[in-house]
Amino acid sequence: MKAHDQMYIDGAWRPAVGRDTIAVVNPADEQVIAHVPAGTAEDVDAAVRAARAAFPAWAATPPAERAARLTALADALAARKDVLAETITAELGSPLPLSQMVHAGVPVLVASSYAELAARHAFEERIGNSTVLLEPVGVVGAITPWNYPLHQIVAKVAPALAAGCTVVLKPAEDTPLTAQLFAEATEAAGLPPGVFNLVTGLGPVAGQALAAHEDVDLVSFTGSTAVGKRIGATAGAAVKRVALELGGKSANVILPGADLAKAVNVGIANVMTNSGQTCSAWTRMLVDAERYDEAVELAANAVTKYVAGERVGPLVNAKQQARVRGYIEKGVEEGARLIAGGPDAPLETGYYVSPTVFADVTPDMTIAREEIFGPVVSILRYEDVDDALRIANDTVYGLAGAVWAADDEEAVAFARRMDTGQVDINGGRFNPLAPFGGYKQSGVGRELGPHGLAEYLQTKSLQF
């Protein structure tokens, strides 16, 4: 890897304008592992100017050639899979097997999928006496989170490049080393200078400068709803397009007649993955009254498989650890019944939180309404199917969810009435081409597949 104290702008590694740096801390042992530049508005401006200068030529590059560069990028990521996994484990704390399979593995599939889409997508069509063109939006400001650092970078940068856009990336300050490795991969893939640029820095400084820059045409942000609202307001003032993938409080609805043991076990595993730091995690488990006690017992047994420091890694930083422990304390205070885990730190070193399950949670409790972003499951009781739907939809969020039933048809009928952007039916597998994004305060726009590509295209019609 190039020196950590540099940024990647206009096809070259260069030092930041200022001297301030950000410490990168390993959340498992609380040790500083690197320092990266704390980019300024001047650094952002240099990156945006490079992206703007590179845009005309990249936009005019035939889709087949852009596809070839994306294929080369996927190959470069695959070649770096081991070091990417090790780096993600070091700066995020994810257990290495998860880093290898999910954090470093899935982005290769996503990058490859956009290479294929770029090669075969119809960028123009004939409608009556009009030719309709799909053209790149322009310069994209991509602001990515720490919880899936490489996946979120690829989910934004790959479709932007496929569309013919140029990009300035501002990664999360907790996981910038992964972004630096990604920049190396773009260099190895032969992207022209300025097509991809990396500026590390703090959100209120570098992130805000990127979102507000007059030469950025679209801001793609993944993170909290609160920050998303601020970015939306900044972009709106300039009539600038945004794509926002924000928070979630997803319902895992287990209908009467479903395989209860499977639904509970998969539901617990879903929340414990990545230490619960997943915006689409099914943190609310809804079970009918007749089988509620059985589900609670199954959940209590299932969560014993997830041990902090083994299958469950630490949270990303001390602030996040304190936040999640505060929510657990709030759950106890409001009357929820703790059946596993609790607020006490399970290990002396590292930002760990015990895998926690609450029973007797009611829809009005804080832990049932606010995104916790940790390994915490709330089990809620419903009386009938209509009551289950009411509880599932009683949230400001609408990102994801799951439905379990005796057959797929029943589950699909229920899922059609859920106010959420993506629903897994009876344990449906992840699809890297399916659109991902939310309803309500979970965001605006979609990622992945052709719907993700569409976010970076604008429409022009020619009448003749």
Automatic annotation (TrEMBL):
Keyword terms, alphabetized: Oxidoreductase
Aldehyde dehydrogenase domain boundaries: 13-461
Active-site residue numbers: 245
Pfam families given in the database record: Aldedh (PF00171)
CDD domains assigned: ALDH_CddD_SSP0762 (cd07138)
UniProt keyword Transmembrane helix present: no
Source domain of life: Bacteria
Regions that span the bilayer: none
PROSITE patterns, alphabetized: ALDEHYDE_DEHYDR_GLU (PS00687)
UniProt similarity note: Belongs to the aldehyde dehydrogenase family.
Protein name (Swiss-Prot/TrEMBL): Aldehyde dehydrogenase family protein
Source species: Streptomyces sindenensis
